[in-house]
From TrEMBL, chain A:
Domain of life: Bacteria
Entry protein name: Fumarate reductase iron-sulfur subunit
Catalytic activity entry: a menaquinone + succinate = a menaquinol + fumarate
E.C. no: 1.3.5.1
Provenance organism: Persephonella atlantica
TrEMBL record, chain B:
Source species of the chain: Persephonella atlantica
Name of the protein in its database record: Heterodisulfide reductase subunit B
Entry keyword set: Oxidoreductase
PANTHER family registered for this protein in UniProt: COB--COM HETERODISULFIDE REDUCTASE SUBUNIT B 1
Claim: Aminoacyl-tRNA synthetase is one of the keywords in the record: no
Length: 354, 294
């Protein structure tokens, strides 16, 4: 392919009533990034295209935009790679999602900044600085807990594609929650409680639907989704009794007592007797459709070898006090198309040893 | 071709609120030549809930689940996206952290078990493609679904995050479309193809997030004139099928989009009867589909 089409979202509120798309034809050049393509279109064909950029090195976060439907940094992705990935001759660039476009690819950042302010995204020291003039010290493991989270460049790619935010703009969003984790989990921070309470307001922290778009989009491997979960763990450790915490307890009890979750009794245990009454019409509907395992009302069946699970459960509870789980580093473990590369193992031949 | 024998991990849903998934999987797998050895001693994967209360416990129970598959010397096959993710996550952590693996194995030893890391975690969707093969599937089609526009709904945990799943491009997956095409159906491109059903925030944000997403997803398939949606995940299924009416109410629209489990759709094409596949068990009526294939 010698040429490709760059289809750009255009909108100038001073002139246009509706956004529209304008397409520019450009040569395919080896190593050309989307940002470079935008520059070429602007310099050679249409000086009115507006977009934000600064470092051109995936550091400042200002060039985030939606490219073929998914948010990323325009200075990081290459045209040839995209054409191959989508098997197309067209690359569509739009402002990031979930926020208000201001002009062409430039979006309203104030809204994001206002959200960020709610969790006080700055270091609030617990103690006075060391008197000898040295820095605040931190145990390497404690630092490791916030290491990846500290890499956030506030590009908002994660916010763009967040499903919970798509459904409800009041959700603080992965960037904000993840930033709250970064400070709340910092052993030198003095405002842990305040930050946790800010994200727990209206149960906001629990609105996340675990879709993992944020972690998938993040160009810096910050693990925003995982940080949200880490923040939820911290909230539970601090004694906040959230629906998530109740849910987790039910799962734990069921694993211990029968191995599998008892979905029939879940609503009552989750929401109490009032909840069960509220859910009764739904339960009846499920019953009529034959989706109910009646045995579950009386405890249901148990898995085989349950005693093994109970032994393990108790031993794990004891052991976990001394285990320091390292956060998995996802850097370098990039997407690999196993569909094309996977070789099936013939267990009949290897006896399960491969 | 390698032997199509798997340690079958059912998960909770197929044993509880989606019995038609359990039954249709077994029937279809048998027809396709897959042998499923059910792991009757396996526990719930924790579904993300246990993981956020007690990470080490969640890891240990899943290490045990994996060890059960290793005992059989087989790959572990799931029929739920979230189970797939939880088991793969446990495997990723254990395989990449020898100290953690050692700590987990000290616990498993109490029950005479050991996690070695020899079994892969795979999903029914992937095995239809990689194990059975699309050519063989095509050969088995006796009732091509050519009159159906089918909207794939992947569900999050079978494509994301790529560092744990990595089976296909999370930005542009094709596996479900490949199967739809192999059985003669017309895959429909719709805006919610890769979206989230909302299931996992149900108990804390039912009105604020979950049901809105559910409605948006079903509506997006309807806008593209799909006859039904198909998903490889029972949690997405429960949300999109069983909760669709609640979602419609909140949004004030009528959708009525049937949602099939992946094995049910394949089952129809290879000649199994709608009743055998449990199509009448869905909350959103599948009557029109049943009439069309009759
Ligand atoms: S995992 Fe949660 S925070 Fe991340 S994109 Fe999905 S809903 Fe948003
Ligand atoms: S978490 Fe990642 S995607 Fe989100 S703002 Fe930070 S760097 Fe960008
Ligand atoms: S220009 Fe700075 S991140 Fe792209």
């Amino acid at each position: 392919m010698e040429k490709f089409k760059l289809k750009v979202f255009r909108y100038d509120p001073t002139r246009d009533t509706e956004p529209y798309y304008k397409t520019y034809e450009l040569p395919v050049e080896k190593g050309m990034t989307v940002l470079a393509a935008l520059f070429k279109a602007k310099e050679e064909q249409d000086p009115t295209i507006s977009f934000r950029y600064n470092c051109r090195a995936a550091i400042c976060g200002s060039c985030a935009m939606r490219i073929n439907g998914h948010a990323t940094l325009a200075c990081k992705v290459q045209i040839t790679h995209l054409l191959d990935k989508y098997q197309t001759d067209t690359i569509t660039v739009e402002p990031i999602g979930n926020v208000k476009p201001l002009k062409d690819l430039i979006y309203d950042m104030d809204w994001l900044v206002d959200k960020l302010k709610r969790i006080k995204p700055w270091f609030i020291p617990k103690e006075k600085p060391p008197v000898d003039g040295t820095e605040y010290r931190q145990d390497p493991y404690d630092h490791h807990r916030i290491d990846f989270a500290s890499d956030c460049i506030l590009c908002a790619s994660c916010m763009s594609d967040c499903n919970a935010l798509k459904a409800n703009k009041d959700f603080l969003g992965p960037m904000v929650h993840s930033k709250a984790y970064r400070f709340a989990a910092d052993t030198r921070d003095g405002a842990k409680k305040e930050r946790i309470e800010a994200v727990l307001e209206d149960l906001n922290l629990e609105w996340c639907v675990r879709c993992m778009e944020c972690t998938t989009r993040c160009p810096k491997e910050v693990q925003p989704y995982e940080n949200i979960i880490r923040l939820r763990i911290m909230a539970a450790e601090e004694g906040y009794k959230t629906p998530g915490e109740i849910h987790a307890e039910i799962f734990e009890q069921d694993i211990y007592n029968r191995g599998l979750l008892n979905e029939m009794l879940l609503p009552m245990r989750q929401e109490g007797i009032l909840g069960a009454i509220k859910r009764a019409p739904f339960g009846i509907k499920m019953m009529l459709k034959g989706k109910v395992n009646y045995a579950d009302f009386f405890g249901g069946h148990k898995i085989k070898r349950l005693e093994e699970v109970q032994k393990i459960y108790k031993a794990a509870k004891e052991k976990e006090k001394e285990v320091k789980i390292k956060l998995p580093q996802i850097m370098g473990v990039i997407y690999e198309d196993k569909r094309k590369t996977r070789k099936r193992v013939n267990y009949a031949e290897t006896g399960g040893n491969e | 071709m390698a032997e199509l024998k798997y340690a079958f991990y059912t998960g909770c849903s197929a044993k509880g609120v989606a019995p038609e998934l359990y039954n249709s999987t077994k029937l279809v797998a048998e027809k396709l030549g897959m042998e499923l050895i059910e792991l009757e001693a396996a526990t719930c994967c924790g579904a993300g809930a246990v993981q956020e209360k007690d990470e080490f416990l969640a890891l240990t129970i899943n290490a045990r689940n994996l060890a059960l598959a290793e005992e059989l010397g087989l790959d572990l096959l799931t029929i739920c996206n979230t189970c797939t993710l939880m088991l793969r996550e446990a495997k990723f952590k254990l395989d990449n952290d020898p100290e953690l693996k050692d700590a987990v194995n000290q616990v498993l030893k109490e029950a005479g078990l050991e996690y070695k890391g020899t079994s892969e975690v795979t999903h029914f969707l992937w095995e239809v493609i990689d194990g059975v093969g699309l050519d063989k599937l095509k050969e088995m089609v006796v009732r091509p679904l050519k009159d159906f526009n089918i909207a794939p709904f992947y569900g999050c945990h079978i494509i994301r995050p790529p560092y744990l799943i990595g089976y296909e491009d999370p930005d542009n997956p094709k596996s479900i479309e490949m199967i739809i095409e192999a059985i003669g159906g017309n895959p429909v491109d719709h805006t919610a193809r890769l979206a989230c059903c909302g299931f996992h925030s149900f108990w804390s944000a039912e009105d604020k997030v979950t049901l809105k997403l559910t409605a948006m997803d079903a509506q997006s398939a309807k806008e593209e004139k799909a006859d039904f949606m198909v998903t490889p995940c029972p949690l997405c299924h429960t949300q999109l099928d069983a909760m669709q009416e609640e979602a419609e109410e909140r949004i004030g629209i009528n959708i009525g989009m049937p949602v099939l489990h992946l094995p049910q759709m394949i089952g129809l094409a290879i000649g199994l009867k709608p009743k055998e596949l449990g199509l009448e068990k869905h909350v959103i009526s599948t009557k029109e589909i049943i009439q069309k294939v009759a």
